[in-house]
Amino acid sequence: MxxxxxxxxxxxxxxxxxxxxxxxxxxxxxxxxxxxxxFGARAYSNNFTREDLVEAIKLCHLYGVKVxxxxxxxxxxxxxxxxxxxxxxxxxxxxxxxxIQDLGMLDLVRKKFPNLEIxxxxxxxxxxxxxxxxxxxxxxxxxxxxxxxxIDTIKDIKAHxxxxxxxxxxxxxxxxxxxxxxxxxxxxxxxxxxxxxAGTCRLxxxxxxxxxxxxxxxxxxxxxxxxxxxxxxxxxxxxxxxxLKIEGRMKSSDYVYCVVKLYRQAIDSYYKxxxxxxxxxxxxxxxxxxxxxxxxxxxxxxxxxxxxxxQRPNHEGIEVGTILACKKKIATIxxxxxxxxxxxxxxxxxxxxxxxxxxxxxxxxxxxxxxKGDIITIKVHEAVKPDxxxxxxxxxxxxxxxxxxxxxNPRKVPISFKLTAKLxxxxxxxxxxxxxxxxxxxxxxxxxxxxxxSKETLTEKLSKVGNTIYKSxxxxxxxxNNIFIPLKNLNELRRQAxxxxxxxxxxxxxxxxxxxxxxxxxxxxxxxKTCLVNSxxxxxxxxxxxxxxxxxxxxxxxxxxxxxxxxxxxxxNLTKILAGEVGVFNKYHSNIDTDYSFNVVNSYTVAxxxxxxxxxxxxSYELNETQITELISNYxxxxxxxxxLEVIVYGYPEIMISKFSLNKYYNNADLKxxxxxxxxxxxxxxxxxxxxxxCKLLDNRNIDYYKLGINSTRINL
Length: 717
Prior knowledge:
- By secondary structure, this protein is α/β, with parallel strands linked by helices.
- The chain contains 19 helices and 41 strands.
- The longest helix has 21 residues, at 253-273.
């Protein structure tokens, strides 16, 4: 019997294209998240055209599946009109919610479209109670918590807030806090905040200690394993979070089907039996389709040694055998698992060797399948060494099974029919899907002149719902004896009832558009010079120089304290500070300067932060001079006020902040990172966090930012 005190959790599935969307629906998801061709944080997925989106929303709603569209990139000034047009289109086509990262766009959409549900994206870096309470105050319906948020923090947030909480439970992990990574942007020019992450963290790097490489056996020191929460799923479900999210918009439809089905069954077993039952066969298939090794992540405070897969950054499959011998490019393999013709194998070596199994032999006999303990011979491209491990990385057999399942056992919506046939009264048919009810009347029921219509015949006809999404689960008949019902009339009544049920399931979300208004303060135009120091030694070097403000990451008199981008909570009675994340505005509404990590790239975000109480706002590293000029010009035109803006003009930018620490991993306090081009990146470990700095010095001191309308320029030491 299902627990009555726990609201059923939503299973949220990824959909990178139409095939994955259908796979997610068939596997039993409650909702999907997907992206259009613009403004989504997975620009390299196939994604959906506007026409695709309209059809996807209709399809999902017919099956009772909600649709959340990702609008979670930062939005440049010149993109705002097209962004608004896109959001308007989504709202008019009944999308259930949109995900947003950009703070200015959150405020703009909330004011323009009050009936449109907003979810704060994980790129918004919501990770503590103050962050969540601010989102709640702003009218956000749901927050997608940072993947680094621990189960204990989730419980605390759940106990002290009323907002819906969405948690990642499976899939790829970013090594950095989402929304706080500039690695791909500043190194390769492909911004993660713009949906174009190049996966720079999954490239090979040397970890150096005293100029010596200490990770020769782990050339990918920043490449994470995949999150897998199945073993701890009961504990997570017990918290009462609203939604469990599976990552995977870049994955195949087979992956989506398998992982959604796996979690669907596990969640259903929790509600039915009070415990989580894991389908080991499905998990086995999922590992073959895609995995980088599994970790419980920071959600369940995993051992840091179990977080990284330093050997390889890509799919590793499962081990299925060992090379016994190889002669003339014919390898003999002893199997530890099953393989089939058409499978993809990888033989580990220097380098690895990949191949498709076109044929193989057991005792010189051609076979299509072989299992554990079998010894097979197979052609390879190059000679391989004995004892080399053989991995199964692609299974045509699994793919075919999924295709067959989708064809033979499509998802159906259970409905109940109630037919009332009383002599002299209209024939009445009621159809019910538990949420919607349709009642239709037909012709007057007449007595049978010859053969009466039997209840068996009526039941048979009502159970035939044809090529629809429905299955007739229960049929109730309240019929007089000796009646005649023309079956043609009954079939037509059933058809009309199902059509009207379709219309009800394709619900309309009331569209409403209002004017955007916001009050902002006016600031005097100044020419300030500021400096950020990270030690007392640095402070002593600059304290007598001509800086108007000195920020410090330490408590140093006569400086403004810089707080980190990751906070558990803010202390009481703060004076003026430089803040790194939004939760500060839950407690304080004045004397707050905001750092570059707020990802401010448009005038709406500037206005929003000033309205919250921000004094001075640092613009994003990802803006150029032209974009800054446009931002300030539009701000003046729209608000008729002057903003108070700062630009960082000098220093080594922080390109990543991570809860994972190489210093802890290697138990070494002094490390550097070296890329393939021998560039060196400084690593700093403070407050249980790792910060990686760009290898190249930013020096824009020659640019006259004051002429553009910037009030303050900052040097970071």
